[in-house]
Every structure is written in C-alpha cells, then in structure tokens.
Amino acid sequence: MQLGLIIGSNRKKSQSRRLADFIDNRIKSGYTKVETEIFDLAEIDVPLWSEDKWNTNSEVVKNWAPTSRALSEKDGFVVISPEWAGMATPHLKNFLLMCDSGEVAHKPGLIVAVSSGLGGAYPVSELRSSGYKNNFIWWLPDHLIIRKVDNLFLSEEEELSDHLVKRIDYSLKFLIEASVALAPVRKKCQDLSTYPYGM
Question: Which of 26, 119, 168, 184 is deepest in the core (most CB within 10 A)?
C-alpha cells in the first residue's frame, strides 16, 4: 500500500511542506504497512504542459517520465494546496494536467487546503470543479482546510491542537481504506484507452 503526498507550493521551506511532513509522520506512526512518498513541487522540475505531452518522443514526456512512474505506483494521494490570491497554485494545476496517462486515475485523493488567514475554501472548490478532468483522480467527499497555518508552526516543538490532529487522522483513515477498496474496482473497470478524457 503506497500513498503519495503532493505539495502544491513551489516555495522552498513552505508551510505546505511542513504540514506535509506532519501528515507523513501521522501516517507512518499509525499505519506501519503504508509506504509514503512526497512529491514537493518546490523540488520537482515539472514541465509546463503543452501539446508536446501528446508526443511520446517529446522532451516534455521524457522529463515527466520519472515522476509519472512514481505516481503510477501509488494507491492514493494527499494533495496539499495553499491558497494564492484565492486560487489553487498554478504549479499544482499544471501538475494535475500532466497526470493524463493514468497516474492518478480512479485513485482517491484527499484535498488539504492551506491558508495563512481565514481562507482556504477556494482551492477546494477549484480542485473539485476542474482538478480531476482528464486525470480522473477521485476526490474524497471529506477535505481539510488548515487556516492560520503560520500560527500552527511557530516552532518545531509546537504541536497542533488535539481536535485538528484527530480530524487529520480521521481523514487519513478514510483515504487509506478507500485506497484499498478502489484497487479491485480499477482492475475490473478502468479502460483509459477507450475513454481517456473526462466528459
């Protein structure tokens, strides 16, 4: 069982990364049989999507191939998006556009929105309305919005509130169980060669 944690911020040492590390530790401490891999868009050189993505011999496809293979091995995803100007980050949207070869198709995704203030709802709405198109990620009905994130990580020692930790654990449990449950459904039903695009 493998989960991918996708960090939608391209900032170095971002609050999204610190939150991803916290979530990663919660998974590792609670689920010894679940392996994780972090896909930090501040560290991965993701090509900008273009029509060259449809040419299997293009540089875009060659540069994307290692990330594509790693994503394809995962059973589910935690997708963390900070709210920038009321939107999901352009790097994250581009990343999801690149996942049009089945990497995340029909695998559950937990949306985690991050805001330095009281926002965070817009990235959730945006990802739900268009973030699944052509990549077929299955957003869980549940999501998390982490508000005033700067105040949660004032120091390495500071802990999140017990209520917030319990809510994160609850959402992770659903993600993990959904990842297990959907694997046989994909094997039985998925046909991306006939139906490669969303409606």
Answer: 168
